[in-house]
Write a structure and sequence with these properties.
alpha/beta; binds NADP nicotinamide-adenine-dinucleotide phosphate; 7-stranded mixed sheet; single chain; 26% strand
């Protein structure tokens, strides 16, 4: 691989279904030069691979869609190579929206969608992008601030063997709750109960989720943390406890579909059982990140939270690696390693 060029994936057309390499151009460009005050040049080391990137490629959402011709937007961790900012020095590890490219030119202090920040000392990139990154924080704020979970309650989470779901179940256990995870396949189900300490797993590929929830939650579900949407959301709504909460975190089952899914038919239980269903975006809680990091760090050091990263290698694999989330190929947090730290 040449080190004097910047390889970039640029969006060529809006994707339909799973990504194809032909939805993008993959080209070699000159490495950008920091010119303005505040500019920093960052060598990409790891890219975070997130379902939301598939939404960003398709349409406007809580962020504008990636414009056709732009470098694909993605968070990541990189090393500062050159700096025109007094806040960053060459060698610093930083995280920010680096994009699917070898080198990113960021402007420190500029009001970007997510400004670049230094990694806390001693935190390796894999941990910064998982437990202490978007997915760990999403699980934390979703379960505690939106779900307002209390000790002794029953928490059900879908996508339970993924980056966010694995954290939700472990935080629920750390808070003294019962945790039931819904995941695809016997290996993932065995991992979340055997390694992560979930009380029970439901394999949605081989089991009747509605019947299992009815059997496992005779007093109802206090908090359902939804990562997938569709029929599983509907099955959880049917078993909602009195004053139960549904945390709308994501609906990965719908992201590659061109048609909007039908609405959940059991929504009326929110009325009958005085429930609440609330969506959120993790960036709503940027001002409270220190609180979350401190709790998460405590649970990691006491062994209450275990981490798992699923690392693919090579920038040329970026579209294929994003597809892994939609074909259930990943377990734990999906990352793409672009260069050695
Ligand atoms: N609101 C926010 O701020 C926020 C922030 C981060 C993430 N999220 C959302 O959280 C969810 C999880 O994201 P993540 O980054 O942690 O990804 P992830 O769970 O690590 O990976 C995706 C997993 O989703 C499952 N899946 C894929 N298609 C499915 C389908 N049709 N039905 C059921 N399960 C399916 C697969 O696991 P199985 O093997 O179990 O099928 C896959 O491994 C996504 O919906 C994402 O958009 C929201």
């Amino acid at each position: 691989m040449r080190s004097d060029v910047n390889r970039c994936w640029r969006l060529a057309s809006r994707p339909v279904g799973l990504l194809k390499d032909s939805d993008f151009t993959f080209s070699e460009e000159p490495i950008p030069e920091p010119k303005a005050d505040g500019d920093i040049l960052v060598r990409t080391l790891y890219l975070s691979v997130d379902p939301t990137q598939r939404i960003w490629l398709a349409r406007d959402s809580y962020m504008p869609a990636v414009p056709i011709g732009d470098v694909v937007r993605a968070g990541g961790v990189g090393k500062v190579v050159r700096s025109n900012s007094p806040d960053f020095a060459p060698g610093d590890l930083v995280q920010g929206l680096l994009g699917w490219q070898d080198y990113a030119l960021l402007t420190a202090g500029k009001r970007e969608l997510l400004p670049a920040s230094k990694l806390p000392p001693g935190i390796p990139p894999e941990l910064a992008l998982s437990v202490f990154g978007v997915t760990g924080l999403t699980a934390y704020f979703g379960l505690l601030h939106i779900g307002r979970v209390k000790e002794g309650e029953t928490v059900v989470v879908s996508g339970a063997a993924g980056a966010t779901g694995m954290m939700v179940g472990q935080i629920a256990k750390a808070k003294g709750c019962r945790a039931i995870g819904i995941a695809g396949g016997p290996e993932k189900c065995a991992w979340i109960t055997g390694e992560l300490g979930f009380d029970t797993a439901i394999d949605y590929r081989s089991e009747d989720v509605a019947a299992r929830l009815r059997e496992l939650c005779p007093s109802g579900i206090d908090v359902y943390f939804d990562n997938v949407g569709g029929a599983i959301l509907d099955a959880a709504l049917a078993e909602l406890a009195m004053r139960g909460r549904v945390v709308l975190c994501g609906a990965i089952g719908d992201y590659t579909e061109s048609e909007q899914p039908p609405g959940p038919k059991n929504y009326i239980n929110l009325l009958m059982r005085r429930g609440r269903m609330e969506g959120f975006i993790v960036t709503d809680f940027l001002g409270q990140v220190n609180e979350a990091i401190s709790d998460l760090a405590g649970w990691v050091s006491s062994g209450k939270i275990k981490n798992r990263v699923d690392v693919q290698e090579g920038l040329e694999k970026a579209p294929a690696t994003l597809n892994r989330l939609f074909t259930s190929a990943n377990t734990g947090k999906q990352l793409l390693k672009v260069a050695d730290p």
